[in-house]
From TrEMBL:
PROSITE patterns: WD_REPEATS_2, WD_REPEATS_REGION. One of its GO terms (cellular component) is cytoplasm. This is G protein subunit beta 1 like. Keywords: Repeat, WD repeat. It comes from Neovison vison (American mink). Coiled coil: none annotated.
Length: 348
C-alpha cells in the first residue's frame, strides 16, 4: 500500500512582530559567542530586528535605512559588527557590542539594483567588500574599513550580462588571490579574478535573472535559482572553468534565495510559491517541501547548529529543525518526494 500523506507541516516556532515583509535573514553567535545564536532580520519597512531564539522575542530594533527595504545583512567575524544594506542606497556598519546598536560608518551605493553585497573577511582590521557599482553592469570592490577602492569589475565589451544580481567573494585554499562569483541578469554566473580584474569563466545557468545562489568552496560546486522552474547546479574545475553539472526541475517557478547549510549536507530554497524546499546537497534528492507561509518566501538562512529560518511577505519568520547536523546524511533519508509537504517532526 502507498504511504499515507504526512500531516501538515509545523515549524519549531514562529517569530512575529516585523510589521512588514521580511527580505533578509542572518544568524550570528552574539557577543562573545553566548550560547544560543541570535537571528537578524531585515524588513521592507527598513527596520533590522535582533531576535533572541531563547525568548523568541526581538531584543533590539535598528532603524537606519529611512523606511527603505533592508536587502542584506552580514556580521563580521569578530561578532559585534553588522553590515546592513538597504534600498536607500546606504550600506551601514553597526556596532552591536554591549548593546550599543549604533551606526559607526556608512558606504554610499550608486546602484538601485537588487544585488546584495558580499564580504571576504581578512584580518580583524581589514576586510574586502564587493557591492554593485556605478554602472548598471559593474561591481565595485573596496578594502574596508578604509573604503579604499581596490577595483571596478566591468564585463568585456562584447559580453552583455546585464546587472549583477548576487555576489560572493571567496578564496581558494590553494590560492590567496580573492575571487568573485557573480550571478547576472541574463542568467549567467561568472568567476572573476579580482586581482587581474578579468573574468576567468562564465556559464549560462538560466534564461531568467539569477535571483539567488550559494557556493560550496570545499566541493567547488554551487547552486542557483531564478524565475524559472529549475535549480542549476554548477561546478568549478582546477582550471577555474565553470560548467553546469545538472538542473533540477521544480513544481512551481520562482526561487528568491538559496542557502547551503554550513555542514554542506543539505540546502534550502525560498520560493515564490510560499514554500521552502530542502534538498540533499550531494545528490540533489528532494527531502522536504515546507508549507507554512501565506506569501512569497524571500529569504532563508542556516545557523551553525543547523536551525533553518525562512522570512516571508506574510511578515512572519518560521524556524525549523531539520536533519540534525550530527546525523549520518550518507544513510537513506526519510525524505518525501517533491510535492509532498512535511513538518519538522516528520524529517528530524
Amino acid at each position: 500500500m502507498a504511504a499515507s500523506p504526512l500531516p501538515p507541516p509545523d515549524p519549531q516556532f514562529v517569530l512575529r512582530g516585523t510589521q512588514s515583509a521580511v527580505h533578509a535573514l542572518h544568524f550570528f553567535g552574539g557577543a562573545q559567542g553566548q550560547g544560543c545564536p541570535l537571528l537578524l532580520s531585515g524588513s521592507l519597512s527598513g527596520l533590522v530586528h535582533i531576535w533572541s531564539l531563547q525568548t523568541r522575542r526581538a531584543v533590539a530594533t535598528l532603524d537606519g535605512h529611512g523606511g527603505q527595504c533592508v536587502t542584506w545583512l552580514q556580521t563580521l567575524p569578530q561578532g559585534h559588527q553588522l553590515l546592513s544594506q538597504g534600498r536607500d542606497l546606504k550600506l551601514h556598519l553597526w556596532d552591536l557590542a554591549e548593546g550599543r546598536n549604533a551606526v559607526v560608518d556608512s558606504v554610499a551605493l550608486e546602484s538601485m539594483g537588487f544585488c546584495r553585497s558580499s564580504v571576504l573577511a581578512g584580518t580583524q582590521e581589514r576586510w574586502m567588500l564587493a557591492m554593485p557599482g556605478r554602472g548598471s553592469d559593474e561591481v565595485q570592490i573596496l578594502e574596508m574599513p578604509s573604503k579604499t577602492s581596490v577595483c571596478t569589475l566591468k564585463p568585456e565589451a562584447d559580453a552583455k550580462p546585464g546587472m549583477p544580481m548576487c555576489l560572493e567573494l571567496w578564496q581558494a585554499d590553494s590560492n590567496p588571490r580573492p575571487l568573485l562569483l557573480a550571478g547576472y541578469e541574463d542568467g549567467s554566473v561568472a568567476l572573476w579574478d579580482v586581482s587581474e580584474r578579468k573574468v576567468c569563466s562564465r556559464v549560462a545557468c538560466h534564461t531568467e535573472p539569477v535571483m539567488g545562489f550559494d557556493f560550496d568552496s570545499q566541493k567547488a560546486r554551487g547552486v542557483s535559482g531564478s524565475a524559472e522552474k529549475a535549480l542549476a547546479v554548477w561546478s568549478l574545475d582546477e582550471q577555474q572553468a565553470l560548467q553546469v553539472c545538472r538542473t533540477h526541475e521544480l513544481t512551481n517557478p520562482g526561487i528568491a534565495d538559496v542557502k547551503i547549510r554550513p555542514d554542506r549536507k543539505i540546502l534550502a530554497t525560498a520560493g515564490w510559491d510560499h514554500r521552502v524546499r530542502v534538498f540533499h546537497w550531494r545528490t540533489m534528492k528532494p527531502l522536504a517541501v515546507l508549507r507554512f507561509h501565506s506569501a512569497t518566501v524571500h529569504c532563508v538562512a542556516f545557523a551553525a547548529d543547523g536551525l533553518l529560518a525562512a522570512g516571508s511577505g506574510d511578515q512572519r519568520i518560521s524556524i525549523w529543525s531539520l536533519y540534525p547536523t550530527h546525523s549520518d546524511m550518507s544513510a537513506p533519508l526519510l525524505g518525501p518526494a517533491e510535492g509532498r509537504e512535511v513538518g519538522a517532526h516528520a524529517v528530524a
